[in-house]
Each structure stands twice: as structure tokens, then as C-alpha cells.
Amino acid sequence: MKTRVAIVGASGYTGVExxxxxxxxxxxxxxxxxxxxxxxxxxxxxxPSLASRCQLICAPMDVAEIVAQADVAFTAVPHKTAMEIVxxxxxxxxxxxxxxxxxxxxxxxxxxxxxxxxxxxxxxxxAVYGLPELYRAQVVKGRLVANPGCYPTSxxxxxAPLLKxxxxxxxxxxxxxxxxxxxxxxxxxxxxxxxxxxEGFKAYGVGSHRHTPExxxxxxxxxxxxxxxxxxxxxxxxNRGILSTCYASLSQEQSTGQLVELFRxxxxxxxxxxxxxxxxxxxxxxxxGTNFCDVGVVADQRTGRVIVVSVIDNLxxxxxxxxxxNLNVMQGWDETSALLGVAAYP
Amino acid sequence: MKTRVAIVGASGYTGVExxxxxxxxxxxxxxxxxxxxxxxxxxxxxxPSLASRCQLICAPMDVAEIVAQADVAFTAVPHKTAMEIVxxxxxxxxxxxxxxxxxxxxxxxxxxxxxxxxxxxxxxxxAVYGLPELYRAQVVKGRLVANPGCYPTSxxxxxAPLLKxxxxxxxxxxxxxxxxxxxxxxxxxxxxxxxxxxEGFKAYGVGSHRHTPExxxxxxxxxxxxxxxxxxxxxxxxNRGILSTCYASLSQEQSTGQLVELFRxxxxxxxxxxxxxxxxxxxxxxxxGTNFCDVGVVADQRTGRVIVVSVIDNLxxxxxxxxxxNLNVMQGWDETSALLGVAAYP
Amino acid sequence: MKTRVAIVGASGYTGVExxxxxxxxxxxxxxxxxxxxxxxxxxxxxxPSLASRCQLICAPMDVAEIVAQADVAFTAVPHKTAMEIVxxxxxxxxxxxxxxxxxxxxxxxxxxxxxxxxxxxxxxxxAVYGLPELYRAQVVKGRLVANPGCYPTSxxxxxAPLLKxxxxxxxxxxxxxxxxxxxxxxxxxxxxxxxxxxEGFKAYGVGSHRHTPExxxxxxxxxxxxxxxxxxxxxxxxNRGILSTCYASLSQEQSTGQLVELFRxxxxxxxxxxxxxxxxxxxxxxxxGTNFCDVGVVADQRTGRVIVVSVIDNLxxxxxxxxxxNLNVMQGWDETSALLGVAAYP
Amino acid sequence: MKTRVAIVGASGYTGVExxxxxxxxxxxxxxxxxxxxxxxxxxxxxxPSLASRCQLICAPMDVAEIVAQADVAFTAVPHKTAMEIVxxxxxxxxxxxxxxxxxxxxxxxxxxxxxxxxxxxxxxxxAVYGLPELYRAQVVKGRLVANPGCYPTSxxxxxAPLLKxxxxxxxxxxxxxxxxxxxxxxxxxxxxxxxxxxEGFKAYGVGSHRHTPExxxxxxxxxxxxxxxxxxxxxxxxNRGILSTCYASLSQEQSTGQLVELFRxxxxxxxxxxxxxxxxxxxxxxxxGTNFCDVGVVADQRTGRVIVVSVIDNLxxxxxxxxxxNLNVMQGWDETSALLGVAAYP
Lengths: 346, 346, 346, 346
Description:
The structure is a homotetramer.
Chain A: E1 3-8, H1 13-22, E2 28-34, H2 43-46, E3 58-59, H3 63-69, E4 72-75, H4 81-91, E5 95-98, H5 108-114, E6 128-129, H6 132-140, E7 144-146, H7 150-164, E8 174-179, H8 194-197, E9 202-203, H9 211-223, E10 230-235, E11 242-249, H10 256-266, E12 273-275, E13 293-300, E14 305-312, H11 316-331
Parallel strand pairs in A: 1-2, 1-4, 2-3, 4-5, 5-7, 6-7, 8-10, 12-13
Antiparallel strand pairs in A: 8-11, 9-10, 11-14, 13-14
Helix pairs in contact in A: 1-11, 6-11, 7-9
């Protein structure tokens, strides 16, 4: 019997991506999709890409209905909205994979400093940070998985091997990230208009982006000591993809070959992290639509720095795909189910 | 036991798309990929999107090798090159799905007028035009399938219902098509450079594009009498997608509702043709990466014309996906195997 | 002494384009820019592209203020808003170049059928249709110039020579147009979001676009008898540019060479219409940011049709540039003042 | 009498940009454009954007001809080709503005280490590095101006104020740059194809890009001591624009307000450097087609770093525009002649 899944907040880009991926999942039956804005409309009317493949009608956000219809819920709603719903879903016995920021930060103070008052801080301890490559053991046993942010995923997978191996000075970490525009969501904002983005490029949120504490939390746990980074996001004129260029000073001399080997060993058993051969670097185009994270690493002998470049699809490994990966891990299924598609290139 | 498949000409965009689709095909084993240019290199080196999912090495074009390793061959090489290889593959007992133009035109005179001398005209009679929605019965029995051109596919599916129902005056047919840049292939031409295409738009081959006789052949067969069209292709600054806007004078009054209904009935049993609800029109974004053809139809009462708008992904329904669909039909498999993916939107 | 110019509705894309062009105009002084939304803000804050080049502050829409500060007003506001303002500006003695649709259609019935009730129909007779290539004599004497729509400009310049020379059957006219996204304006609509437009392409308003009667009005006047067309606009994933592909049956045989020659002669004295050499076709990239309209023409002997392809920049020759051209004509200045810039290619 | 100008290598993107700008220059007459590839063809045939505005025919590269026709030559040819021509042009009495890399590095050893053998090292001492904001006094007297690279221009203007004021630790400089695709030129390379670039993003030349020594040379001169940087270029899917994000540790505490003020003062008299108001950051779209460099600066108190973001148009301030600025300075003309155009936004 298939597991019944609800997608709460189905009319955003993350929602439709969850539907796309789960339609190909052999053990999943999507039983419920909710959308305040489009309640009563067929989801295939909202997203004609789903025509003939998904007959579901958008339901209003009604916890009782969701609970009646689903075993697992993906909550793909904005932060703050998530913490209004998630406790009820858990209380009713559902497993929840929350794609918002509400349960990612373990320290409620830090959450409240970067976001707003937290209404269910008691769940923060239980919540599992759903980056399987680093926290698989916890995800297996999780009831509430906080699906990581897109930028933090791209950064953690790029930098963790270096911190684990104690090869870099964490104080020197500079993270320069570039994200496709779907990361800004589907709301009607001036800054998201085609003509405002196309043929443009800019940095934003310099020194103040909310993913900063999430990045630092993960890197600190990996390093075993507090890590603080400079993190600068930029807006790329593409639909999908994040590329993070990470710089740090090496604390001991390393050749590029040695570093590539380190990354290969670290990720040898990971189905979704692909380490680029020496002398090659990743491109967001190679992971578009997929759950892969491609990583390239270079030692710059002149400056004594290491540069790591990672790419993901912000809507897949940075959101919906990683959520499905977490589902697979939580349910004890093959971790790659529904996630082995190859990028449509070009 | 899986069917062994060779992809001849794997390093073009159609080649890599065939690999992408066939990697998810439960009854297929890709045993051989050839590329003159990259012989000896891993195909995943040529297309890093394939990393960790495909270990094949590009082989040189050697018919004996292909014959030894495969039951079916997809020939994704330029016209002229195709007709040098296909007869040998057939002679050795392989089934062939040829993605070039070499076996699409039944009349060798017309072929030679628009292309060049044909070296295996004897095969033209046997070759089956692989548009399953119109020629499924022949494809089932085919040994050599001529996979249709991208523009002709988009046009035939848009116009056939009207011709079959004898609702339009064929002499008034005007076809205005727009194609994404992957249709120009992966060769290093000035006109295909990013800066020459991006933020640009142009018509080309006005009155002289080689897909014209192919379009006319199909429409004539459907209509049961000679059909001649004005066909104008344009180059769109997108990677993938063809949209064809087709105009014709109605020979009897029809409402949009009646026409939508006609299209629905015509394609009721077709898994890959989706007719848009009245008042809505297709977008190439909804079919990107998929084998769907979405069709919208409007009756313009003021002018007495019908306008049909169809969209496909030129690399999928317009090439590799249709080729896999033909494979499924030829082999008696489920016609939708490996082809039910939904577009990654956005 | 310079002519004092007001730009009413300066915070849209047409408004900022007017500023860009007029900053380089030797006889113009922009004295007033208005914006309801940004009143009180520096226009260079709204559009940082203007930094260091324009110190104006957005004023609220106050007719008395505009009248006090300007000799000529460009009204770059939506239709309906225009007809609330224009009569007052005229009454106060200003010359007005209106970029909305409100004074383009001479027949108030037709206006009211496609738009809404007209509140100043008495001005329709006086209003001059500001397409200098066809109506220069009237523009010279105009007090109220109705600046043409973007699509109608691209179509009129493409088709007029054929109608004037009585070479085509007007009943067979099919116009397939494609516009860049800036044509949709700067308002925050779902359909204008980057991710909804990028890598997409669609037709819209089939058989119902409001530019249809405007196109037909001009073509009818040129032909000297009623002309009805099929007009289909499409949304291009580029910032700027309109390409119109126009089809008609030739009423007498013509070679491409003869048609090119006809176009050359027709536009021999026009500084902004460039006829492409035989065998070449225009590209929107060649006119980006400029007031040029490039036109290419082909006779298709097989079908007896002529195909004309025209390109303009929808914000320049399709709006702000043509408005400046009209200003030049009205003021008796060099018609090309401030308008001879070459496209930044690529 | 106008100054006669030759553009050597007119058929590349920098060449056509020089033509575009110089056509609007009141004191310049372009007398000669050369192109090996298109010799004998009208330049307006090579670039139809120039139609009706430029009647020149491409000449083959013949030094005697150039010398006979011009007073000043812009050499817009690849490095190595430049040093074959420049000495002859100088010897014949022309002033030369060389847009290649051949005369930018003062130290021939460093040149030969990053490029190849230098055939006219004797000119390196005389050559002036044409970044007027830093070297105006020398440019005034220059006979051979080495026009800076695009990346180095964007970096020098961003970082110089901090080094001059001794506010940063040069050892901590990390430069993360992103360039539009026109930076790769107009040659037919696989990596420059539309489908390879569009919807993609990648880093390249990590730790090894040839602009690194040029950046370090300028920054070292400004700092008065050797500066070494980590410099990582990336390829942006846009036609034009470079954005450089520059990170360094502050050697003393500074607020964002103080840093903005420092930049304002530094560039108070510079017509082409625009410092963004506090809390705002530049976008390449705001400088497209213009000679402006927009700079934004942020102090990140948490990490003690300063982040400077600069944008230029790589073909204008990063190449042709800066070359014209140098011409203006060399000739004693208004430095802004032909260079005050505003970006066409959007």
C-alpha cells in the first residue's frame, strides 16, 4: 500500500516541484494538495505542466482534512505560516517535512533575532535538520524534519569536508553565492519581474541574509567550534540553480589533487554528491531539475587558499528533491527513489 | 532480458537526450554510444550532466561493432551521414530509428530537390514515417522508422484534425513557427553563439526551409489531396521548445467550443497530445523536457479563420522522445514507457 | 531657449525611456516628471540607471503644476487615465503627445467596443495619428498627437508599401507578431514574473487583442478600403523588440528583387526605416534601443504569397522614440534629433 | 578639423562598440576599419545594427594604409597580434590605444609568464595604463595607452579607495567576479554557444586567469606594497556586464556610512564612477551600454569585513568606452565626449 502524502502550499514553485517528483515515486500517493489562493481550482489549471498527469483539486488549508487524508505532510509554506500548522499535523500523528525556515535553527534566540517570535519553540529540539549527507542517522528516526535552505545546502556540502578534515581556518571563510530567480518564489514583486531580472545581475542582503545563521549552525557543528562566515547572495538571471564559490585559507599545504581525493572519499557513498574530476568545475546546467550537488575544488598555491565551487538546483536538492530524499530516508526506502533523473541538457 | 540499444551520434543534443530518456527505460539497455569527435572519451565527460548515471565510452562509428552490440539503433547523425550507415545496420538485422531527414520523404525527387542525391532510395518505400499519432499501424510493423522533423511534428499535430474533418481550405494555410536554439545543434557556428541569439529574434529560411516538403507530405496524406503551405521558421532565444501558430480559413462556420471539442475527440486516446481547455493557450514552458504536444485552438469569427497553436519540446517530441515512443510502439511495449515525466516548471 | 517638456507617468518603462532619449536632446529641457506611486522620490532612485544624469524629483499628478512648468507634455499613462488629463493640458495651451490608446482610433464606437466609454470624444477628430512615415503632414500641424501602438507601428510600416502599390489581396492578410516583455509594462503581474516568462513562449489575445482595430484603421486608410486582418501577438522572452511576420497573397506575380526595390523606393527618404538587402532579414537585436524599423521582404513563388518581416524596439519606435520623433516634427526641428543612436550590439 | 581614427580589428564585439560610440563623437571621424575575416565587406553587412549609420568597408590589415588614413589607432585585436602592429603604428607617428593585454603589464617577466614571449618589451616602459581614474596624469601625455582589462577595471575602481586609505589588510582580498558572455568574444567556440551558456552558470580559470597579475599590479601600485589576491571569474548568461564582489578584512572598524562617504569623496570629481547611496547596491543593468562604474559598499560588523560590489559594462567601461575616455584625455577634449549615454533600461 502506498504512503499517502499531502502537499501543503502546492501553488508555489516548491509545491509544484514536489508534485513533479512525487508523481514518479513508486511508493507514494499524493492525496491532498492545498492552496489558499487557488482553493477549488484544479492544480493542473494552476500549472498546466501537470495536465493529464495530476487530477487533484486545490483544497483550502484545513488541518483536519489533511490529517484525514495523509500519513506524511510536506509543508511548503512561508516561515511563520509553517509554525502555525506543523504542531497540529504532528499532534495528529503525521510525519512532517517542513520546507520553511521555522525549525531549522536549534537556538530559538537566534531564530527570533533573524526572523520573528517563535510560537512552538518546544519542537526545535525534536526537529531534525534534514541534510542527509550530514545528519542521516537523525533523519531516519525523525518525525519532524526541517528541510534545509537552498543556500545552506549548497554551502554545507561544499565546505564540510574541509572542516571535518581540519584543513582550513574557519575565520577566513568567504561564501559568494548566486541563485536563480525561482528562489524568490512566485509572488508578484517588482524585483521579480522579467524585465527587472533579465540581463541584470546584483548582490542583495549583503551581511544580512537570513540563511547566514543556518549556514553557520551547520558549519559550526561540523567543525566542532563556532564558525562565522561572510555570506553574499546574488540574483542570477536563470530559472533554477545555485552556485556557491567558497574561499578559505588552508591551514596546511594541499595540492588540488589531494583535495579532490579528500572530497571523493568523503562522498564516496553519497548518491547525490558528485565530485568533479581535477581541472573541471561544475555548472548549474548539469544539475538542473535533479537532486545532484556537483562539487569542484581547487588549491590556489599562490595565495594559500582553497576554492570550492558547488552547484545544486535550488528547487530540487535545495528544496523539493531534498525533501523527497528525507522522506525516503525516514520511511526506510531506497534513498534515491524518484530522484535519479538526469538533467535535461541543454 | 533487456533490449540492447545503440545511439549512433551520441554527442549532439539529440544524442544526449536519447541517453537521458533511455536511462529511465525499464526494458532498455544502452550498450553502445558512438561519436567521431569524442571517440575514446567517456560520454559523461562530454556531458557532465550524465556523471554517475552513465559509464559508457564513446566508440568510433564502426558498423560491425554496433551490430555486435545492439538490437536496435538510433541514428542521430546529420542527413547524408545517415544514409551511409542505415542500410548497413538494416542489412545486419537491426531495427533502425533514424532521426535524420534521409528517409522521411517518400518521393526521392523531392528529397533530391531539397537535400542532395539519395544513395539508398530503395529504402524509401519501406521506411515508415514515425509520427505514431498518424501512422501508428505502420510503425508497429516497421523495421526502419524515419523519425519526423521537429517543425513537421508540431505542425502535423496542430493541423491534422482540421484537415481530416475537412473544415479548412488547405490553400489558405499559413504556418508561423518559432524554435528554441537547440534545434540548430551543437556545432560551432557564429549564428549559434550566445551573444548572437540572446535578446534577439529573427525569421530565417523564409519560403525555403527543408521541413516544408515534409510538412506538405504529411498534410497532403491527411487531406487526401495536395496541400501547399507557407512555412516560416523563427529562432527563439530559449534552449528548447517549438511553438507553431497555424492559420487557415474555415470552410464552414465553427465556434471555438466546437473546434476544441473536435480536437479533444481526435486526440482522446493519445497519451501525448493534450488539448488546452477553451480560452487557454499552450506555452513551450509547459512541455519542456517532455514528450507532450499541447494544442490550443481558436475560431476567429471576425475573419473566418481558425488559429491553432501547438507546442512541443523540439528535442523530445520533436526528436529523441518521439524516437523512444516509436521504439515502444515497434517493440510492442507500453507506448509511454520512459516518457511520462512532467516538465520541470519553471 | 529650450522647449520645456513634462513627462506624465515617468515611472513606467516608457517614461524612463523618454527621459533617456530626451536627456540627449539639444533643444529640450525636461522640467517635470510625474509619478503617483513614487511622488516625492528622486527619479534616479526609481531608476538608478539615471544616477548622475537626472536630478528630477517625481511630482504628483497635478495639472496646474505641469502647465506651469512645461510647453509640451508626453502622457505616458494607461488608457482611460490619459483621457482624464489630456483635455486639461490642451485647454491650458500645451501641446500633447499621448502615448496611450485613447486618441488613436478615429471612430468612437470602435474605441468603446474595444476599450471603454470615451470621455472626450470631441478630441478624436483633432487628434493626429503620430506615425510620421504615413501622417507627417498632419503631425506637423498637430496639437494633440496620438502616438501609435507598438504592434501597429511594426505592422503598418511592413504592410503599407504593398497596400499602396495594390500588390496584395487585403483579405488574405495574416499578421503574426512577437513582442518583448517590456510591452507588458512594469506592473506586478504573475504573468510578467521572470520565471513565468524566461524559457517560455506563448501566444495571447488571439483574435481579441486591442491593437487589432488600430492596425485595421491604418491599413484601411492606406488601402483606401476596409481591411481586416488576423492578428496574433506572442510574448517573447527578451526585454525589448517586436518582430512582425506579415503574410498576404500577391495579386500579381512579383520577384523578391522587385519587392525589395518597391520598399526601397517607398522609404528612400525615411531616416528611420531601413530596408534589408535582398536575401537578408532583420533581427530585433539590430534595432534594440533605437528608433529604427528594419524591414525584410520575400516573395514566395511556390505559394504566391509575400512575407514581410519587420522589427522595431517596442519602447523606442514603438513608443518613446516615435514620441520624440513626433515632437521633432511638430516643433519643426530636425526629425532625427536625439534619435540617431546605434544599437548596442550585442 | 576632426581627428581621423582607425579601428584595427573592427569585426569583434569591441570593434563594433568602438564604432557605435565614435559615431556620436563630435571631434572624431572614423576613417578606417580593418578586419582580416571580412576584408572587402561593408561593416554594416557584418553588423546590420550599423546600417544607414556607417558606410565603411572593412580593409585588410595594412599598416601603411592605416598610417595614411588616421591620426589615432585603436587596436582591438587579440594579444600577440597587437604587439606585431603597435610598434609600426607608433613608429609612423600615430597615437595608439591598444585594447589588448600586450602593454598592460610593466614587468616583461610577468607578462611572459602569463602570456608568451614579448616582441616589443622596450615599449612597456613608455606604455601608459589607461585607467584615467588612477592614471590620468600619465594618460594626458601618453602616446601608447594600454587600455585596461575588463575585470581589472571593475576591481581597481572597487578596491582602490580602501587601499589608498589603508583601511584593509591586502592579504585578505578575495575577488569574486562575474562577466557577461560578450567578454568571451565573437569566435566560434563550443563554450560560447547559446545552449551552453543560457540557463547555465560556472566559474572558470580559478586561480589561473590572466587578469590576475594585472589586478595585482594596479592594486600594488595603489597600496604602495605588493598585493596578492584570490580572483575567481564566472560566466554570466547575459550579453554584457561585469559585477565584482570584493571582500577584505578591515584593519580598523568602519561603519557602512563611513565607507560610503570615503568612496564619495574619492570619486567626487569622477564623471564615470557613481557611488551607490547607503543601503543600495548596483546592478549591471543600470550601466549596460554606458561608461559608468557603479560601486556599492557595505561594512559587515559581524565579521569585520568590508564588501565592495562594482558593476561595469565589460564592452564599454571595460573596453571600448574606456578607450574613448582615454582618447578624450589624450587629446585634451572633454573627458565625457560621446560617453554620457544613459543605460536603456530595461
